[in-house]
Each structure stands twice: as structure tokens, then as C-alpha cells.
Amino acid sequence: MSPNLNNTIYESFIQCLKEVSPEPDPDISSILFSSTVNTAAYTAVLQSSIRNRRFNTANTPKPAVIVTPTKEYHVQAAVICAKKLGVQILIRSGGHDYNGRSYVSHEQNFILVDMYKLHNVTVDMTTETAVVQTGAQLGELYYRIWEKSKVHGFPAGVCPTVGVGGHISGGGYGTMIRKYGLSVDQVVDARIVDAKGRVLDRKSMGEDLFWAICGGGGASFGVVLSYTVKLVPVPKVNTVFRITRTAAENVTDLLYKWQLIAPTIDRDLFIRVILMPETVNNQVTVQPVFIAHFLGDSGRLLQIMSNNFPELGLKKEDCLEVSWVESIFYWAVLDYKSPPELLLDRHSDSVNFLIRKSDYVQTPISKSGWASILDKLGALGKCGLYLNPYGGIMEEIPTDATPFPHRAGNLFKIQYSMNWSEDDPKLDEKYLHQTRILFEFMTKYVSKNPRCAFLNYRDLDIGVMHGTGVSGYNSGKVYGEKYFKGNFNRLVKVKTRVDPDNFFRTEQSIPTLPKVKNADPVLFSRI
């Protein structure tokens, strides 16, 4: 984008903001950043929440203007002005979108609304709820809960710097998924700015839109300002462990048994498996790591493991008894004795180049299948798998309770994980290629018709939207049914009602129903 065009958009935008703001705001310019006006500040704001260095290069498309609202009406004004100027608007909370779609666009002109200054968290222990603005990070939510109660928590992710907005609107899960379900399963209210610039809560937006933004990706429907969530009880004593097993310890047998018991064992227990190739003495080896969070003391955990998974050989000395907030640090691979205030550090994680993909496994993988998977990981040498069990309460929640459909019948979810630190475009291609080879190799082991995917692990390889109308709907359906299965068409209907002009859009947003003259009524009755 040319500097002159950037400057024109900036000047038009700031003038519009002043005109549509409901009250005089002499500091309105302080929330606007442009590469041609306040270059250093613009660059600092843009890069502050970039979590994938693949999308922080000279060639990465940049927003013409960044808006950093501090008040709700700033968001309203930004939406109204972006629509008036005919430019695309993107919304960023924590910047963890794996493909950078919260701040990168293929469209020529776009504006970024960065929510990071709207990060207030209010915990009310009389109702056991929290109102959390979408610019907050999970660590801030966890800290504010800890401030008020040592026996309450919230079922969300293990990375404290993940933004609340994207995490919850895409589903959100953590180590308490088998006990309490997803983050969206605990949402009771929300506030959103819609395509008309109105601020709506659950009552005024209606149940269909509320349903859509609780797992269907909020940025397809508006700018979510905050979520009201229910807190969940957690015990004073939690137990965690991390055990590594070697090839000499019958790891294929362990993996085979894990996939059978991890989804069916006591729902207070979550056992993740990490399969990450490592090079030791010029030899590539894959040693499974079993990492667990148990809502209870080590004595009860040892009894459960002895009865259900004795093959892992868990011992008392493997177990660490911690508080719930200490378990957050443990799972974030930080010192579990860290001061809780560290959760307020919004830049505590390192940033690498990375690629992610996802899959769901619904049929047990044979021992020979696990052996093949380990061999393939070793042969590729760098891409790893994170295996996250389902089961528990996830078997009981209907698939259409929220847009997130991946409930009963899933043994575990796979995250494909590839990281590197070297700034070399050739490595981008190399590691993208390796990850895609592994993804293709796994086809025979994972869900089919459709091959499902997790929205919060956004993957542009599974499809992108092309055009509008029929082509937009048909291309959107390709990735939409992988993310949402049978809930996709309901999301399309909601989208068409609340944003018929498709103002809120990205390469993988929810499409609108095509406006087709003389359309086949039978065809469109199925939508």
C-alpha cells in the first residue's frame, strides 16, 4: 500500500471518528496509529501482539491504520467509519491466530482494531462469575480469579498470553475440558458491536447471535467487547506430573493403552501426550511425554492410575501437589512457584516461526499404526504432535449446544506443532512442506467425511473463501464444515441476518447466503 493512500485513509478515518463519536474526545488521535504519521509508535503497536514471526516480515501486508480503543464507543466509531470508508476491519485480542488472520489480510486496504487496552476483568464471587473484556489475556483472567478465591478457576488454555477474545469465541479448551467442557460452555452473557455500530448484550442481540459468537468465531459477526463467564470450583490440592518414556519401554503399547483410557478415565484427570522428535548424538528419537493435571490429591490419583493405567508406572515421587494457579505455571513450562503477578505479564512468552494444524481421532489406532507414526515423526525429524484427550462431560454436551461440534465420539484431538527460530524464507517452505507431509500421512488415522479441524488452530490449507455470492458460500462451506460440521449452515443463516453485506470478513470467516435470482428452492431449503 502506498504511503499516500495510507495517509489519506488515516486522515479520512480520524475525521470520521471525530464526527461519529457520541461525545467530544480531544484525545481521539491518541488511539490511532499510521505508518506515515507516527511511524515508531505504529510499528511498536503492530508488533506487540504478533506471535508468529512468519507474519512479521517486510513483505507482510500491514494495516493502513491501527485503532487501539479505550472506550466502547471507540469501537463503535471504528466500525461505522470503516464501513463508511469501504475498508476491511480486522480485530485482534492476543495475536495468537496461527495464520495471523487477526492482523494480516489479502485485501489491499484494511484497518486493525487492536483490543489490548480493553482488558478489564471484574470477578464477582457472589454470583461466581467474571466479566472479562476481550483485550485481556488468559493470565489476567486467572490472576483476577486467584485474587478473589483459591478454590475457583476457569476452563481455558494453558498459555497465559493467549487473548480472551479469540480463545473464547473459537471454543477454548484447557486441562479441565473433561470435567467442565470448553470455555464457551461457561459463557452466560456477552457484549458486541454489530455491523450497524450498535452495542448489544445477550438479550438485545438475541439467542442466535449469542450462540454464534460462543464458538463460531466472533470476528465473523462483529467486535466482541466482553464475555461474562461462570467460574468453576477447583480443589485446594491439584496434582500434576510429567513422565517421559523411551523406546525401550514399549511406547507403542503405552500409546495404544493411553488412547483407550484417557477419554474414559475419571474426568478429574487430563493426560496429554507430546510426541516431539529430538536429536541426541546425531540420532533422531521420539520419546513420548505424558503430562497430566488432576483435580485432586496424589493419593487418589495414584489409585486411579493403578486401577486404569498401571502400564505407565506412575509413582508417588512423580507427582507434584500444587494449587490450581500453580498448575497454570506448571503447564506453561514455568516455575510453578512463580509469583502469581507474573500472570499479568502480557509479553512473557517467546515468539518463533511456527506452523500448526489439527485433527480429531475417533477410532483407536492400532499398535502397528502407532509404530508407523513414530517412525514417520523420526524420519521427518522436527514436526511434533500434541495429543489431547476428550471424553468426560464432552460426551454429554449436544453437538449443537454451541457452534463447536466436536463432542461425543472423539477420543482425542491432535495439534501438529512445528517451531523454528531461524529467519530464513527457505526454512519456511521446508517446514511447511514437512508439516503437510505429516498431515497427509495421518489421513488414514483421523476423522473423515469431513476431516474435522479446530477453529482455534486456524489452518488456511483446509480452504479459504473465494469471492462472494455462490462462490463465496461454496468455498466457505469447504472449511466451514470441517470446523463446524452440521452447525455451519446455522452460522451462515445468523451471519446473513446480522451482517448481510459481509462487512466482517476474513479468508476464513462465515459466508453469507448467496443472493441468487431464480434459485432452486429445494437446494436453498437445505441451507
Automatic annotation (TrEMBL):
Keywords, sorted A to Z: Disulfide bond, FAD, Flavoprotein, Glycoprotein, Signal
Which PROSITE patterns does this entry report, sorted A to Z? FAD_PCMH
Cofactor(s) essential for the protein: FAD
- Stored InterPro entries: BBE, FAD-bd_PCMH, FAD-bd_PCMH-like_sf, FAD-bd_PCMH_sub1, FAD-bd_PCMH_sub2, Oxid_FAD_bind_N
Claim: Glycosyltransferase is one of the keywords in the record: no
Stretches assigned to the FAD-binding PCMH-type domain: 59-234
Pfam families found in the cross-reference section: BBE, FAD_binding_4
Single Gene Ontology MF annotation: oxidoreductase activity
What family classification does the UniProt entry report for this protein?
A: Belongs to the oxygen-dependent FAD-linked oxidoreductase family.
Q: What name does the UniProt record give this protein? A: FAD-binding PCMH-type domain-containing protein
* Organism expressing this protein natively: Tagetes erecta (African marigold)
